[in-house]
Write a structure and sequence with these properties.
The chain is mainly alpha-helical. The protein has helices spanning 7-26, 45-49, 51-59, 74-87, 91-117, 119-131, 133-139, 144-161, 168-180, 187-205, 209-238, 242-255, 262-271, 283-298, 305-323, 336-347, 366-384, 389-393, 398-426, 433-456, 461-472, 482-486, 535-542; strands spanning 478-480, 494-496, 516-522, 547-554, 561-567.
Length: 579
């Protein structure tokens, strides 16, 4: 067994990691998200999702119109409101919440890994999560993903600590509920945690009397936190606002978006590693994490409960994406800490990850056999994607899918042929310290280089555009359009979000009291809306005398983008209300 890092060195290194991580998340916090090494951030979504918090901070009222994301993300909204009340309303103030969430996730993953696998694993996990380029960039965007993911890591940390003190299970359940009410995409973790509670109860019940009692206490504490937290939020928030909650979380988020035909499910499954580049940007962590998944699946029944929960985090999360939506990069942020925790367990393992017994019966290998096709395909696709990025971004996915499937099938056939021999070879082995240091160093430097590339070419167009808008329009001025929310953080306008069938959609053609619209005119009118929706163009067609008041360069993608402020009424038209 390896010797571990001494406590003093561990604390010093951890403080250095946290300081460096804080710099990466806090420096130039009003800069535009990356567009060349993009990670899926849509900058104008920030203002939309902090809308209710901004309302409350500026005007002491949560709801000012028909767009109310507080019913989707009450935890995130509350944290943003606290930031605005303490620091004022602005771009960096909105982004401080996810930045602090990212730091909280680093601390939580270090605590969990230290308890589960020792200080060396904790250092590896903290380093890799601290510098991970996609995670850093999402921690710099005022969107829900970072805070939701931090709650997931907190839940996993608490469940890890519950191995020794079952009472921590209550916090694990509460944190899982908090993640769900930060963003409902965390529903997968509720399911994963519930499955692990069932598995832990089943295994614990078959243990000796003392072990059975401890296991039942831990499972009971986790279930109490999960159920108690859900009941508390239901009574205080969901039931009093049931119609709004159901609309935003079911009609808008579930029934309106995906197709659930067999063909659609197959498409989304094949897209998993192809349509997003997050996994391809962290190949060391992804590869080590998937190998660790297989190692835990091989010894499923004897693996620590916290390790099993990590595997379920990955597998159930991927299933959720297949069912709901695998086409947006923001959906994959939640996997980053889990993959890094798994990679850390493999790279810094004190005991052999695959166990010490090489020969295993067929039933013992069943969990690994069931999960292997999905894991192999995700890994293969993540290696294939960088070579076919141009065709993938052009919407031509078939070559990447077929090549990824062929590589995954080859890996599976090799394992069927030589898998037992491989297990015998892996039994009793750990990753050599020199190899671990090399892999961690390479991964960390790669992420730092990506950040440095962004920093060298950083821009502030979006922040400057919001300030410029405030110089043109008086505080309280009503402005229609999704982009109005996106450009509202540095001024006092009252944006009216217009979605396709939701938000301020129904009366969009009747608001003669609203003089202005904010939208894109480059690369096209209404670029911020769904392709082909014609939403903004339809409003402009209703007001044929509209004219351009001002344009603002903004930064979203690799091409040239420009926002435009439009006056719906010609200069000769009688005066209209300006709010």
């Amino acid at each position: 067994m390896r010797t571990d890092v001494n406590l003093r060195s561990f604390l010093v290194v951890l403080l250095v990691i946290l300081a460096a991580s804080a710099v990466l998340r806090g420096v130039w916090l009003t800069a535009d998200p990356p567009v060349r090494r993009a990670v899926g951030i849509v900058w104008h979504d920030e203002g939309a999702w902090v809308h209710n918090a901004r309302n409350a901070a500026l005007w002491d009222v949560w709801r000012t119109d028909e767009w109310n994301p507080v019913f989707v993300a009450p935890v995130f909204t509350a944290l943003e409101y606290a930031a605005f009340e303490l620091l004022g309303v602005g771009t960096w103030q909105a982004r401080i919440v996810p930045a602090l969430s990212g730091l909280a996730a680093i601390i939580a993953i270090a605590i969990a890994l230290q308890a589960l696998a020792g200080r060396r694993a904790a250092v590896v996990g903290a380093v890799l999560l601290g510098v991970n380029y996609p995670f850093v960039m999402w921690n710099r965007a005022a969107l829900m993903e970072s805070t939701m993911t931090a709650c997931l890591v907190l839940a996993w940390m608490a469940w890890t600590l519950a191995e020794r003190r079952p009472a921590w299970g209550v916090l694990a359940g509460l944190a899982a509920v908090a993640a769900f009410f930060t963003k409902a995409a965390a529903a997968f973790f509720i399911a994963a945690f519930g499955l692990e509670l069932a598995v832990a109860a089943w295994i614990g019940w078959q243990s000796a009397t003392l072990g059975r009692r401890h296991a039942m206490l831990r499972v009971g504490a986790g279930a109490a936190g999960l159920i108690g937290g859900a009941l508390l939020v239901a009574a205080a928030f969901v039931l009093p606002w049931w119609d709004e909650y159901r609309f935003y979380n079911w009609q808008m988020s579930v029934t309106r978006k995906p197709s659930y035909t067999l063909g659609a499910l197959v498409d989304r499954a094949t897209w998993l590693p192809i349509v997003q580049g997050l996994f391809s940007s962290m190949l060391v962590e992804l590869t080590a994490g998937i190998v660790a998944c297989v190692a835990i699946l091989v010894r499923w029944r004897t693996a620590p409960s916290a390790e099993r929960l990590l595997v379920l985090w990955i597998l159930v999360g991927l299933v959720e994406l297949v069912v709901h939506d695998s086409g947006n990069e923001r959906r994959y942020v939640m996997f980053i800490p889990a993959l890094i925790a798994l990679a850390s367990l493999l790279l810094a393992a004190r005991t052999p990850p695959f166990g010490v017994v090489g020969a295993r019966k067929g039933l013992q290998l069943l969990p690994a056999a069931l999960a292997l096709p999905l894991l192999a395909y995700v890994l293969a696709g993540s290696f294939v994607r960088p070579w076919l990025t141009t065709s993938i971004e052009a919407g031509q996915l078939s070559t990447a899918v077929r090549l990824s499937a062929a590589l995954a099938a080859t890996v599976i056939l090799l394992l069927v042929w030589r898998g037992r021999a491989a297990l015998r070879w892996l039994a009793g082995r750990t990753v050599a310290p020199a190899a671990m240091k090399l892999l961690v160093t390479v991964a960390a430097l790669w992420h730092v280089w990506q950040f440095g590339t962004w920093a060298a070419t950083r821009t502030f167009y979006n922040h400057q555009a919001s300030i410029a808008l405030g110089r043109l329009l008086e505080p309280g001025t009503l402005v229609q359009g999704k982009l109005a929310n996106g450009m509202s953080l540095e001024n006092g306008i009252r944006p009216l979000f217009i979605g396709n069938g939701f938000g301020n959609y129904d009366d969009r053609l009747d608001r003669d009291d609203v003089r202005y619209i904010l939208t894109y005119d480059l690369p096209r009118i209404g670029y911020e809306s769904s392709d082909g929706s014609g939403l903004i163009q339809g409003i402009l067609d209703h007001y044929p005398g509209w004219r351009v008041v001002a344009t603002f360069p903004v930064e979203e993608a690799r091409g040239e983008e420009r926002a435009v402020l439009i006056d719906k009424f010609p200069e000769s038209f009688p005066a209209h209300a300006r709010d």
